[in-house]
Amino acid sequence: MSEEANPRRPKRKTYVPKPETLALLKVSGNPINGLGETTVRRPSPFFWHPPDQHPYEELQNVARLSSRKCPGSGPAFMAAYNYPELVPVAEERSGASAEELTAGAREFALSHEADDFGVAAMDQLYVFEGYTVEEPWVIVLALAHNYDRLKEVPSDETNGVGVVDIGDQYARGTRSSYGLANWIRSQGYNAHAYPGPSANALVLIPPAIAAGLGELGKHGSLISRHFGSGVRLAGVTTDMPLVASGSSRFGADDFCKSCQVCTRACPPGAISEEKQMVRGMERWYVDFDKCIPYFAEAASCGICIAECPWTRPDVRPKLLATMARRGVVAGAASWM
Ligand code: SF4
Ligand code: SF4
């Protein structure tokens, strides 16, 4: 959908944040995110963490309210926050091998709402400062958007189709990650679920990339070879023996170097054209201070992921073929 065709999108370069929204951005988020830092470190708790852990409680409230005023959004997000109970860990452990347990977990997840599944060894760089994760494995589940609904973003009081799809995918992530954690517990191993949209111990994109679910895009979100940027994530950590999936490149990072679709579509111009140094890693970066006022006012926005050419089901196979022809698909993907 072009920006002209969607009446809810500001014309290019016309967006100006409301003064009352800007006034709530009391502290720049870029230093908290580690922009410009050359030393590798764990991420700091940030937006969508409990409000005593960051300075954006009021902005979070604006974002939540602008989302909830959209038709259908309330029930969709209520389902996302409806956490099932975790069952006790079974006293008797399964005697299956790591290969068998990985296959069993994958089969369970893919038959319980997850659209993709990957395993990575836990790395403490995936854990926000102040949190502890002791399990040695992280499973990341991908939940695909419905493109025809996602492309309706941003939402407002007149049209909630896009943000309802966001809520629906988070709700599927909650159900599938808790379901998988309980399946693992039934095998006699510990497991915890980490669905969105609230943030918890785990940052999800880096382990998703390590687990082969995609590459980091210029818009700061995951690009999946199967679903493009129209995808949400949920994590499960466990001490159940597993086999790592391994990362996988298909050319998204290389494609981003010459694509400007999201940088041009982003109303506040928040998406950096070049990679930036962030917590000791050179990577794509979105300027929090530019993104978040629009994100908060526009019901969680979503324009960059909807506009990304990889998200379009009719375009994605052609891009995959083009990048394969260019020979850029060899090697491991990295979140740098
Ligand atoms: S979510 Fe943020 S970065 Fe993406 S288009 Fe909206 S304002 Fe821009
Ligand atoms: S729109 Fe283009 S530059 Fe942005 S993430 Fe997608 S492929 Fe990369």
UniProtKB/TrEMBL annotation:
Protein name: Oxidoreductase, NAD-binding/iron-sulfur cluster-binding protein
Annotated 4Fe-4S ferredoxin-type domain residues: 246-276
PROSITE patterns: 4FE4S_FER_1, 4FE4S_FER_2
GO molecular function (one): metal ion binding
One Pfam family cited in the UniProt record for this chain: Fer4_7
Domain of life according to the entry: Bacteria
Matching PANTHER family: IRON-SULFUR CLUSTER-BINDING PROTEIN, IRON-SULFUR CLUSTER-BINDING PROTEIN-RELATED
Keywords: Iron, Iron-sulfur, Metal-binding
UniProt-listed InterPro entries: 4Fe4S_Fe-S-bd, 4Fe4S_Fe_S_CS
